[in-house]
Amino acid sequence: MQEDDLKNTIIEIETCSLTKKDQFKSVLTFKYLLEYWQNIDKENPFYLIYESKIKRIIEENHPILHDIDDFSKLNDYKDVIKDLMTVVFSPVSSDTEISAAYSLDFENDPLFSTEAYKKSFLTEENSYHKISDEELKEISCKRLVFIYAKILKEFYDFEIFFDNVMSAKIENKNTGLIKYYNSSLDTRFLKIVKKGELPVLTEDDRKNLSENLNNIPLLLKMIPPKLFELQGFIIIHKTDVTTQEILSEIKRELLNKNSILNKKNFNNLQYMIKSLLNKSNINLSIAAIRNNEVLILNSGLDNCDDIECIYRESRHYNMAEYKNSIFDVAFTQKKVLIVNDYPEYYEKSNKTPIDTEILKKGAKSVVIRPLIMEGKIIGVCTLSSNNTCEFDPLNLMKIEDVYPLFALVIQRSLEDFNNEVQSIVQKNFTSIHPSIEWRFKKAAVNLIDKSKGNTEKEMEQIVFQDVYPLYCTTDIRGSSTQRNAAIQLDLQEHLFIVKDIIDSANNIKNLPILDEFVYRINKYLTDLTDGLVSGDELEIINFLHKEIETCFNDLKLFSDDVRHKIEKYNDILDPELGTLYKKRRDFDDSVDLINKTISNYLDRVQQDAQKMFPHYFDKNTTDGVDQNIYIGASLTDSIKFDKLYLKNLRLWQLIILANIARLTDKLKAKLRVPLETTHLLVVQDMPLTLVFKTDEKKLAVEGAYNIRYEIMKKRIDKAIVKDTGERLTQIGKIAIVYTQNSEAFEYKQYIEFLSAKGYLDNNIEELLLEDLQGIKGLKALRVGVNLSSDSEYYSFSDIITQIGID
Predict the structure, then answer these.
(1) How far is the CA of 745 from the CAs of 367, 737, 800, in angstroms?
(2) Hey, which residues does 690 pair with through a beta bridge?
(3) What is the pLDDT at residue 432?
């Protein structure tokens, strides 16, 4: 490996454990700082200090000029050290720059520190916060690698770059709150002095080092520390990153729904918010709103127990109790309400029981923040303190990004509760398809019969053997692409309207921030021309809501023209979504119309189909409609089953699919977005076994071979014709997937019959399909639908009238 290949290597250093023998010998000396002073140019502002103070120190041969091994004497030199450090730590930035000079072992108090450093790390006992063992270990390891980087560069022309920034979490002993700091090392006044013959690094050694630069034991072995001496001191610069780190910690905590239900987690959350706001005397309270009830989940003022269910263990209040209270004001405005003298506010308030309860708890300052999800208030976050004027609006902005996460946690908890309610309903009042209801009644009778004498018995397993499945689906072609395109067009129009408002305002009063808004709007528009990327919609909407719309009240005052444009803008936004909803509404309405038309049609024809022979039927609606049908002897109580009924249902299903194709084709004239549909059915001639899953409250296919059929249903819509790369499903055609030649023969007969009846054309394509994951050997027939035929189960106009479309 060549020397140039070894340079500019970036590495990360892992924290390591070091022994005494791993340490470089270090000597505290200020001589390199003095050299810096002596090289100051006469035009430098610090030269006057050098002439008046530093020069005298040198001339008098002050003890500070020599190596220092007795740290106890440093206190005697503190005025001299302060003068020397003037060129390192500017007095002008002493109140803002969190910096200090340390001896190389970091084991003593700082040699010198800024006022900001003292404010951050001096306790009430006037002693410095000691560097934790963990931080000291990290500093030692990073310092060690930094020293080796300097040695390799200076003595071996081998350059290494690494990140020497360290993070530390520190509890303020005065307030009990936590702070986060990033620390970086400044080694300008540290020199490495060679004390022995240096080992020669061979090409193999260099290669080994280049591949293991973060291997500290290897560095110690190849270049022993005893060959060098460190002279000088080191400077540490700290940056307060409390806000960023605590916000990240809060967000991580709120990923867990128990963060607001579990008392320990909630107290930790409250502690982090106290630290974030730098207020030790505040309390947090979280409540959820469900229908007409307010559920108090947890409060820093209360000694609550853990809550496992958002409803069961929480304290409940009726929303009517909050009428005319301080909360009602916040709920009405849907904005944060800050009251920094609550007793005074209370005297002027309606003095509702809710207001009185807050006063009794000793609150002097109160912040109420409604938690909103999709424009609906689902909870409330309350901060309180027994001090007046405790809350500063600017300080409170730190937690503004946290509120949506509180709302999300509450929403998840409410969903869990609703799922539990639904589970109880299903457990006791399971909705069963009418065709198989008899079987569940029979099982219930058997259970009663077996439970005589109050002996508890389990419900027997409900199994339907030898049933034949019939599956078909109508899918909207390219729905995801068209949905994204609709969203993209709405966002572009929304941005152009906002840009026009900002441009108009900027013409009246030129403000740099308005130019910045236009720049970002243009950037979003440019990005959107390349298509919609995941996350774009949310990012743009947040930008419009949080940054643009919040300044509209001020922009309205610029001119009547600007005011009219903003009023017009507010009028065209969807009141529920708070955004432009035109193209997306057109798309959603078109999808909904297709789904409703198909669903309504199936509801009508299913009544006739059940009269032919009872069978299990269900449909699932997404971007199109799936149909699942099962028929067999075990699904009926007393009616004799014959495969004639299976063939009849298969033919009926093909007829229905052809009719759906014609319905959706005629429907295109009524669609705001021209959507096309494709149609597919799967043939399975081998009977399956269905088992009622009591835990899922639904019928499910049983057995490995049978499950293959279920897997095929989920994947078949993506099937590709072998050797052509063409999608199996095509507009205006029905695809019939099968595995056995006998199945194809049967359906060719049906196609011939339906072609003669005018439902289909007789141009049959026989296709081989590419293998799907876990499924091989699939074949398909594909046939066109006669879209102009009048042969229908129920007329198109009848179906459209049924769903309320003119």
Answers:
(1) 74, 12, 36
(2) 464, 701
(3) 63
CA-wise closest residue to 243 among 397, 436, 92, 453: 397
Reported as a single tens digit per residue, the pLDDT across 382-412 is: 999 999 999 988 888 888 888 888 888 888 8
In whole numbers, what is the pLDDT of the chain averaged over residues?
82
Rounded CA separation 799/806 (Å): 11
Residue that wins the pLDDT comparison between 426 and 758:
758
Length of the chain: 806
Judge whether 471 and 682 are in contact, CB under 8 Å: yes
| Token pair belonging to 557 | 């005052």
Mark 733-746 as b/e (b = at least 16 C-beta within 10 Å). bbbbbbbeeebbeb
∠ CA 423-425-428, rounded to 5°: 105
Cβ atoms < 10 Å from Cβ of 728: 23
Residue 248 structure tokens = 């990240």
CB atoms within 10 A of CB 251: 12
Output phi, psi for 138, to 5 deg. -65, -45
**What stretches of 39-163 show up as alpha helix (H) in DSSP?**
47-49, 55-59, 78-84, 115-121, 133-156
Residues near 652 by beta carbon (within 8 Å), at least 6 away in sequence:
609, 612
For the chain, the farthest-separated pair of C-alpha atoms sits apart, in whole angstroms, at 119
CA distance 270 to 281: 11
**In this structure, are residues 465 and 699 in contact, taking their beta carbons and an 8 Å threshold?**
no
Cβ–Cβ < 8 Å for 545, 574: no
Terminal CA-to-CA distance of the chain, rounded, Å? 79
SS3 content of the chain, % helix, strand, coil (to 5): 50, 20, 30
CA neighbours within 13 Å on the CB side: how many for 366? 26
Q: What residue ranges define each of the domains in the chain, with the CATH number in brackets?
A: 3-239 (no CATH), 243-420 (3.30.450.40), 435-460 (no CATH), 479-580 (no CATH), 586-802 (3.30.70)
Measure the CA–CA gap between 577 and 541, rounded to whole angstroms: 10
Residues 276, 396: contact at Cβ < 8 Å? no
User: Is the pLDDT reported for residue 310 higher than 60?
Assistant: no
Q: What are the tokens at 45?
A: 């502002």
Separation of alpha carbons 209 and 669, rounded Å: 73
C-alpha–C-alpha distance, residues 186 and 142, integer Å = 12
Q: Are 244 and 250 in contact (CB under 8 A)?
A: no
Helix (H) / strand (E) element for 607: namely helix 583-612
Task: State the pairing for strand pair 376-385/282-290.
Answer: antiparallel
* DSSP state for residue 692 in the 8-state scheme: E
Q: Report d(CA 660, CA 759) in Å as an integer.
A: 11
Q: Name every residue whose Cβ is closer than 8 Å to that of residue 503 and which is 6 or more positions away in sequence.
A: 518
